[in-house]
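Let's inspect a concrete specimen:
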Amino acid sequence: MKVLIIGGVAAGSKVAAKLKRENFNCDVTILTKSKDISYAGCGLPYYVGKVIENGNELIVNTPDGFSELTGVKVLTEHEVTKVNPKEKTVDALDLKSNKPLKFEYDKLVIASGARAIKPNIDGIHLKNVFFLRSPDDAYALRNAVDSNEIKRAVIVGAGYIGLEITENLSSCGIKIMIIDMAKHILPGFDDEFSDYVENYLAEQGIITFTETEVEAVLGEEKVEKVKTSRRTIKADAIIFSCEIKANTEFLADSGIELMPNHTIKVNEFFETNIEDIYAVGDCSSVSNKITKEAFWSPMGSTANIAGRILAKNILGSKIAFPGVLGTAIVKLPEINAGRTGLTEKDARKAGFNPISVVVVVDDKAHYYPDSSTFIVKMIADKKTKKLLGIQVLGKGATDKMIDIAATAITMGASLEDIENMDLAYAPPFSTAIHPFSHTVNVLLNKISGDFETITPAAYAAGEAKDFKIIDASIYPGIEGADYIDLTKVKGDLPGYKKDEKLLLVCAKGKRAYMLQKRLKNFGYNNTRVLEAGTTFNNLSY
């Protein structure tokens, strides 16, 4: 069987390698426009930030090395210009000789990936205008950093790559400003979490301008300023990580069906609408596991998982790709942010009746030297209690919280199913009741009505305006608020009516919850706890 693969980065090389491992007799050829294959695209920001010292470490396999290791024929600097499904051929151009070529196939895999979109603005070709999609891009940016010619940089695009390059350049002492056209940074997070991170970055000296468009790059020979719809900013460099586009233009007139975003439409087996033609990786859309709707997941993790499945299917299996959850994690200055599943907003759009809770929980035993906290938003369907999503911020291992949630959602678990899991505990790693289980318990208490709250989003929207703020902290610390010491509450509170609207606030929410329970015992029936307390919320009066 002759298998032709267009593209040789994550998805293409994974399909090729797995095909040859399973059946070495397969005739497998990779055609790629690039001179590199199988490089660590996700590692590029960390090379720029000198976390990865040697640029050669970004190259997982050279073309020759990959061929020797796997038996796959690799033709680099070969640009595919046309696919001919009726003839089962592909037209290509050898970029080194400018010679047109034609290749036959029995099975065709399109793994042509995606590319950064270069905006059509003045100054885009000035020195120190960078994109970050290939090792060459990373080498160029790292060289500019090493030359000390960049003191101030503008990052355009506040998705995961943009935030990763922000963190790495910031660690090199470069002053950063982020620009994004969206309402908030951090796609895939609910607004209150994005707000929190924007404020947190500002405290680190990193300013974000959202709902802002880049209009021009200014300078004589190199970047000197960036003109935006808000203001003109002094800068020595600009790094675009704002938008990518699937490489599918060469499929025009091929009959292969595309999605509205120009990615290739495939079914759960990665089959296109034309027999014996498949698509995988950043050039194609998959589906969301929860909603079953089409979903673009241009992630290295998705590409590798999908590539492995597709190779098995080409060899005769019938394995359905289960869909993605949009799982993602990003390292920011001194904090990590991760998420999986549906946001509260998306859950509502999908027809669920979502209920959420925001909690601040210890990430490990509080007495352990490097202990910190997680800020967690957990979302479930109120009726079925099915877990729908989670968002986590913290200095520690946020990935373990995300991965537990991704596992639970994949298995279709309800909160009761995961309430008492036997998770790993020792003081250096966790708390006796795991922070994930702690969050589940709090959300179950909220669903049952035992824990009555006002969410951070509702508080920001003014829903607590009729409530009197009560400081429930260990020691008084909220200026202008009445203070009630939990340990002193033994009965009725002088000066407070039983039906008075009281908003109980402490640092994290736990002590406020304990006060609420005690006050309910004495007939105070109109209290609410501000979720995540002063750790997450900016109090207003």
Summary: Residues 453 and 528 are 5 Å apart (CA to CA). The longest strand covers residues 354-362. The chain has 13 helices and 32 strands.
